[in-house]
Design a protein that fits this description.
alpha/beta; Rossmann fold; 7-stranded mixed β-sheet; binds nicotinamide-adenine-dinucleotide; binds glycine
Length: 366
């Protein structure tokens, strides 16, 4: 790839008066001019966690020299994505006397982003919000589109709101400090875009997975940009998930059941999604919608990305089914799943024989 591929990319999430830009590039934390136009008052609260703050907080504070800046550092981990920790965040905002003019900035992965976004949606009935995602998963998925939430012991992301940020700044240089396991978890969501609506991107991923795993800057920027382009188009078409946005949940009904069933934080979100994606492919093949060759391509790409393609044996099939039945896509008591009618062609359906779903769950365990 040429150096053109390393230049700043700007995409747009088209939502009328709530439209916002996504900036993608290498080294953006040194560019305050990308951030400050999206801060309307003089007050900023940066929310991060105990891992990301020591790495990047100072740099973000330095971008905000002319503002009153507060910081709050949350504990790190999916198990802290709770109402109790959210309450601590509200306490920090109130103790530091932030008014409704404050802009909340999320600096971190999807956990920090989802919690900060929900806090921004609620604090004094809603304050502006900016996302600075620092994991691959957050850069390609969770920072874009305005889904915010915390987990409940009975179900993943069950308490939340749709609340769009004012802008998203994805600095791919921050991914250098991410460990390999977390990096791979992000690739699960990248592969998802190819599978649901972008066959050409899936082909590109098959050819370029090695460069991506080596974190080649040009490959990384291309993968983040193409993923965000897909996400931005879907969100612009269906912000509140009445239709095509549900495709973005490929593998998620299976995956959320794994995350909840195993205990939050045991399986990484992206790992659970990868296993869930394989299960969705397996069920699609049982329904005769996907040819075996495509199932093998999906399995091989997920494995190449060092992702699991089977669920945990420790989670009984009955328990999986129970957990899948509290998914947000459940309607009138029936489990609705995102399945595949080919690579690049997703569909949402509850029209499947439950015995086939059971067979998938039984087969896809290690
Ligand atoms: P995460 O936020 O837990 O981050 C993963 C780990 O990487 C954490 O330990 C974090 O501290 C660390 N980290 C973050 N940035 C780093 C960096 N640059 N260098 C080193 N370490 C770094 O997990 P995630 O995978 O980013 O996000 C998963 C969460 O996102 C889940 O809660 C999931 O439900 C949510 N999600 C939300 C949406 C949405 O649309 N809102 C979409 C997908 C996932
Ligand atoms: N990650 C699913 C969505 O944003 O809709």
């Amino acid at each position: 790839m040429t150096t053109d591929n390393l230049q700043l990319k700007k995409l747009n999430v088209a939502l009328a008066e709530r439209s916002y830009p996504l900036y993608i590039g290498h080294g953006l934390l040194g560019r305050p001019e990308l951030l400050t136009p999206y801060i309307s008052g003089r007050e900023v609260m940066i929310v991060s966690n105990t891992t990301v703050a020591p790495l990047y907080l100072e740099r973000v504070v330095a971008m905000l020299a002319d503002y009153r800046v507060g910081t709050v550092v949350l504990p790190d981990g999916e198990q802290y994505k709770t109402l109790a920790v959210l309450d601590d965040l509200f306490s920090a905002l109130l103790e530091q006397r932030f008014s409704r003019q404050v802009t909340i900035i999320a600096l971190g992965g999807g956990v920090v982003g989802d919690m900060s976004g929900f806090a921004a949606a609620c604090y004094q009935r809603g304050v502006p919000f900016v996302q600075i995602p620092t994991t691959l998963l957050a850069q390609v998925d969770s920072s874009v589109g305005g889904k915010t939430a915390v987990n409940h012991p009975l179900g993943k992301n069950m308490i939340g709101a749709f609340y769009q940020p004012r802008c998203v700044i994805a600095d791919t240089a921050t991914l250098d400090t991410l460990d390999d396991r977390q990096f791979s978890a992000g690739i699960a969501e990248v592969i998802k875009y190819g599978l649901i609506r972008d066959r050409e991107f899936f082909d590109w991923l098959e050819l370029n997975m090695a460069a991506l795993l080596a974190r080649d800057p040009a490959a990384l920027i291309y993968a983040v940009e193409r993923s965000c382009q897909n996400k931005a188009e879907v969100v612009a078409e269906d912000e509140h998930e009445q239709g095509v946005r549900a495709w973005l949940n490929l593998g998620h009904t299976f995956g959320h059941a794994i995350e909840t069933g195993m205990g939050y934080g045991e399986w990484l979100h992206g790992e659970a999604i990868a296993a869930g994606t394989y299960m969705a492919a397996d069920l699609s093949a049982r329904l005769g919608w996907l040819v075996q060759g495509d199932v093998e391509r999906i399995e091989s790409l997920l494995k190449q990305a060092r992702l699991p393609v089977r669920g945990p044996k420790a989670l009984a099939v009955e328990r999986m089914l129970e957990l899948m039945a509290v998914d947000k896509k459940v309607q009138d008591g029936s489990i609705r799943l995102v399945l595949l009618q080919g690579i690049g062609a997703a569909t949402v359906t509850d029209q499947f024989d439950p015995a086939l779903l059971r067979a998938t769950l039984e087969q896809c365990r290690t």
